[in-house]
Predict the 3D structure of the following.
Amino acid sequence: MDTIKIVLAGQPNVGKSMLINAMSGSNGLKVGNFSGVTVEKTELCFEHHCHLFEMVDLPGTYSIRGFSQEEKVAHNYLLNEEYDVIINVLDSTHLKRNLLLTLELLKLNKKMVLALNMADEAKKEGIEIDVKQIAKIIGVPVVLVSANTKEGVEELLEKVHEVADSHERIKSNILYGDTMEEEVLEIETFLIQKGFSLRDLSNREIALRLLFEDKDLYKELHDEPIMMELQPLVFKALQHLYTHHDTKNVQEIKANEYHAIARGIHLETVRCQRNKGKKSLTKRIDEVLINKYLGIPIFLFLMWGLFQLTFTLGAIPMDWIDGAIGAFGDWVGSNISNDFIRNVIVDGIIAGVGAVLLFLPNIIILYIGIALLETTGYMSRVAFLLDGFFHKFGLHGKSFIPLVTGFGCSVPAYMAARTLKSEKDRLITLFIIGFMSCGARLPIYVLFTGAFFGAEQAGNILFIIYISGAMLGLVMAKILRVVVFKGEDEPFVMEMPKYRFPSFTLIWHTVYNNAKSYVKKAGTFILAASVLVWVLATYPNQPLLEQEYQTKIEQSSKEDVKVLENELKMKKLEQSYLGQIGKASEPFFAPLGFDWKMTVALETGLAAKEVVVSTLGVLYSIGDEVDENSNALARELKKNISFASAMAFIVFVMIYLPCLAASMVFAKEAGGYKYLVYLFVFTTVTAWVFSFITYRILV
Amino acid sequence: MKLSELHKGDRAMIKKIESSEDLKVRLASFGVVRGSELSVEACSMGKQTMEIMVDDTLIGLRAEEAKEIEVEKL
């Protein structure tokens, strides 16, 4: 089967991810990454008409000439990789601006198809587009599509086939401004008179490249004798262009010319019937959402609502899951006769993995919230609202996006920081992303707030935890800015995308993929960690101790038996490997009011934050019978841990090093393991100090 | 007149952009070039950031960047 390798390129917010979904979804095959901020190129394959379509989704970029990480990724890929066809995705409702990127892509001289996405939206807005005329001017096939209604998707696939199989290129009829055209014609005529030719380039193309100071072409022409005669011509032409454009900057002239072209194409091919007097919906929503006075209160209210919802709504299925896991454990336990195997499975695996699975509803609600923020276009507004405030802390308004993503998971958050162009802004943002508590820390908070505060209070406390973590992050950013990363600020210029009704499919995909990876992690990594923790907590065997208690139990009265049995379990645990590790590091954590069990839980949390809960689950699953109707672990914690220690524990969890996977990504994004060492020292010291303060105030 | 001096609801034409090279490329890709028409749609508290509309595209920018754009009020 033949393979066609396709690259998708387009500006941000043109619905590329949706389009990929529509193109591949119809064939029901593998679907790749659907995060709102596509930072790394993602790949997927599917079949169409006996061809294997290999799709590469490049990050959305406004231009491929820029210097941000994303633009570099896109530019390098387009220039250096092997592929067959580019699909340039455009937003039909913002054609003029989107065409600017198209013009840049045309310069690559590759096979290309234009997909004018959001055709349904354009129709609604009364925009009519003459697709054939655009194709004639630009010289590549153009298809109107809508990822939403799937209209035109099949046609787009057909066109890709055609273009991939064809060997000829249609001539483009792009016209520059009058002055530019005059100068081009003069040079072109001269080249024809001389009978000059270079590679497959037309004389017009050579003339254009000369005027736009294309370095590679100059290098090629350097040794050609014609250069001597060309020089004065080009020199004269440039002087004319300088006066006409009122600047000597060729890049600026190029930008102006591209604009003129885009404007021209737009004028010639797009008819807009929209009532000019009527304000667009986006403008009317903006009147409220980025209102000078209301904007920030509304934002805070929405955030507060999200955390309330996470707790209250999430609590309902949690009870069911808790009950189901308990019942499942009992059932499994009653069916296994071998003591050792039963203990491993019930106390190790089911207790550990169950404790993590319990929080799936919370995670799902949180991810839905973040996905809504991303897909509706509200995220950019928040960056706009908060930039003034963020800027005071030495951060960029755009840092908001990685920071909010950080509430979900630090891994995509670290990658999302690439949208920041200035190296210093990026590093500061990377260093404080950890202060935005990730979804995996949520179970720990839910567990502790549930145990130590009433159900009515828990949502508020959760909100306070997140907000104070974020605030602390901002203060740390300021400190880093003043002490470590001094220097110039990155300018804040950002598109405010049109408000869109969130697409159900896209949100479903984001949430489903995140939930799936959470469950997968629970089933693999956390399962293994649970078994390991259980083994460390059970061994080495202590026959002497057991014998001692056995005789004690035999000699004592009935009431004392239970007390003695629990005492034995405690002693055994203390002398286990895990107990020894905890005891060894206990002095370091003793000033914070942590016992060795909490210490161990924190240490296992370095692998993954979910493990903190599963470790606590294993460590505290000893002792009394489990009450079916209430969260057993929460009750155990409340009984064994003082309020001050619990709060200090929450504070430590809020601040200390993110999980192993996130740490690796951090090192990669920051540019080396030395930064990871800095991060470790930075977070551990901060966590310890703040935890210490919390404990001392409350105790 | 500078873009930063405009108020909500004002319309203007861009005369000159005096930003750094990188920023000019970015602005140009949004349609902000010499000769473009714009309208001011919103300002945040203390005018730290402002939202402008150029060619049907809404753009948010900071006061410092708006200071570097010379406009003529329409």
